[in-house]
Automatic annotation (TrEMBL):
Domain Inosine/uridine-preferring nucleoside hydrolase, first and last residues per copy: 8-311
Gene Ontology terms: biological process: purine nucleoside catabolic process; ribonucleoside catabolic process
The protein's name in its UniProt record: Inosine nucleosidase
Top-level taxon of origin: Eukaryota
Organism of this sequence: Acacia crassicarpa
Pfam families on file: IU_nuc_hydro
Length: 321
């Protein structure tokens, strides 16, 4: 293990599995959470900020700054797709928690990302759990951001499987396809964790019982909010468990060896019925003509995951909290 914990910023739209991911990151000695930046997705950005502040309060970590992100897409779109039917109207299982006492910092998410990357070149990992608008804006506003940022580990895409918003696209990419294409082609060190792997990582009803029966503070909190999420999975997938999208993505930053990856260029379809589709070009064929695919930087895309190991880590760390 590296002696220095890896500095991470979690870009998040909390979200039930975001709550689980944030708690998991705080319980992982391999990483140090230096900030949360917020984005729309599971809820609107304003509520994402409120939920992020609330979760840090629950965790007793109000020392960690929260910077509010974009309220609109990269192309200034305001008709956002909000997945409150998955996470509850408040994003946290309809528990109506009291408002947090803390406030977000004055600095915007984009400025915070740019500054942290500039001050710690090569050392900061962004773990992006929502649409990629904030990251794309940082790339567009600071020509050095792609070089300064250590790594971007993102939850997004459905590589060679159906999407979860529609058959073509996964929710985070669909949330801002233009931003996703900017990020994938930016030349930054990128690891994409798609639903092709996260759908293999399932928290079962009996895991939920174990959390409920444990003394862990985070486990107890999550037990309260998981109901809505379980109901959604039963209705949408006929699945009695829930997918651990965000916790898997956090653990990819904590321990990359839990997954395997292939490399290639990724482009995102930004219009039409396949808007949000992610396509990986594995560079095995050299094409003669110059196209939108030529000379694009390579990224890593997860293709397998050690699901039992991921679930065990999630359970162990949340029960021991």
């Amino acid at each position: 293990m590296a002696s220095e914990p890896k500095m991470i910023i979690i870009d998040t739209d909390p979200g039930i599995d975001d709550a689980m991911a944030i708690f998991l990151a705080l319980r992982s000695p391999e990483v140090e959470v230096i900030g949360l930046t917020t984005i729309y997705g599971n809820v609107y950005t304003t509520l994402a900020t409120r939920n992020a502040l609330h979760l840090l309060e629950v965790a007793g970590r109000t020392d960690i700054p929260v910077a509010e992100g974009s309220h609109v897409t990269l192309t200034k779109g305001t008709k956002l797709r909000i997945a409150d039917f998955v996470h509850g109207a408040d994003g946290l299982g309809n528990q109506n928690f009291p408002p947090p006492k803390g406030k977000q910092i004055e600095e915007s998410a984009v400025d915070f990302l740019i500054r942290q990357a500039k001050n710690n070149p090569g050392k900061v990992t962004v773990v992006a759990l929502g649409p990629l608008t904030n990251i794309a804006l940082a790339i567009q506003q600071d020509p050095d951001f792609s070089k300064n940022i250590g790594q971007i580990v993102l939850l997004g895409g459905a590589f060679a499987v159906n999407g979860n918003v529609n058959p073509a696209s996964e929710a985070n990419i669909f949330g801002d396809p233009d931003a996703a294409d900017v990020v994938f082609t930016s030349g930054a060190d990128i690891v994409a964790i798609g639903i092709n792997v996260t759908h293999q990582v399932v928290l079962t009803a009996s895991d939920r019982e174990k959390l409920a029966n444990s003394k862990g503070k985070f486990a107890q909190y999550l037990t309260k909010i998981l109901g809505v999420y379980f109901s959604y999975h039963l209705e949408a997938y006929d699945n009695t468990g829930v997918y651990l999208h965000d916790p898997t993505t956090i653990l990819a930053a904590v321990d990359p060896s839990l997954l395997t990856y292939i490399e290639g260029s990724v482009r995102v379809q930004t219009s039409g019925i396949t808007r949000g589709l992610t396509i990986l070009y594995n560079k095995q064929k050299r094409f003669g003509e110059v196209t939108e695919w030529s000379d694009k930087p390579s990224v890593k895309v997860a293709v397998t995951v050690d699901a039992p190991a991921v679930v065990k880590l999630v359970m162990d760390r949340l029960m021991d909290s």
